[in-house]
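for the recovery benchmark. tokens below, seq after
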């Protein structure tokens, strides 16, 4: 697993479960981010290409991501942003490491289409929900994560599109 390093302060846009579609509201809201994380079930290379027009992109493969375009996407990725280690995978139930003992500050996942922010044993678990196919009567959503001097501020943003 490669470790990626980004700047001292970073605003991250986090999306998941786009399944080949992204609402315009998401693009407008993440256009000033330093980094975009896609936590899987992308739905096609065109989604990644569109996101890369906005910012650097870190993406993992979801259970619905098949075909030649997805073969090089990893199942999980570890990055370091402004000194904080972030572990990205699609399904948090498939977490194969102990984040606290691995000095991971944030675990980003998707899969459930349900946004959530939880802290467990000092580790932030962040699921942005689905940016295109919400479930359980909720709206489409994504997350913003602001990291500066080990200060981690997550926000869930809902989209009405």
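predicted aa per position
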């Amino acid at each position: 697993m490669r470790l990626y390093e980004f700047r001292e302060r970073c605003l991250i846009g986090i999306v998941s479960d786009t399944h080949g579609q992204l609402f315009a509201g998401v693009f407008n809201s993440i256009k000033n981010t330093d980094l975009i994380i896609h936590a899987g079930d992308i739905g096609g290379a065109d989604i990644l290409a569109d996101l890369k027009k906005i910012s650097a992109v870190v993406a993992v493969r979801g259970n619905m991501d098949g075909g030649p375009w997805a073969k090089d996407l990893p199942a999980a990725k570890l990055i370091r942003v402004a000194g904080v280690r972030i572990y990205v995978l699609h399904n948090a139930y498939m977490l194969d490491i102990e984040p606290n003992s691995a000095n991971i500050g944030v675990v980003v996942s998707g899969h459930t289409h349900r946004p959530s922010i939880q802290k467990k044993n000092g580790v932030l678990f962040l699921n942005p929900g689905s940016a295109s196919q919400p479930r359980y009567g909720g709206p489409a959503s994504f997350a913003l994560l602001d990291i500066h001097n080990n200060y981690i501020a997550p926000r869930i943003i809902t989209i009405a599109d």
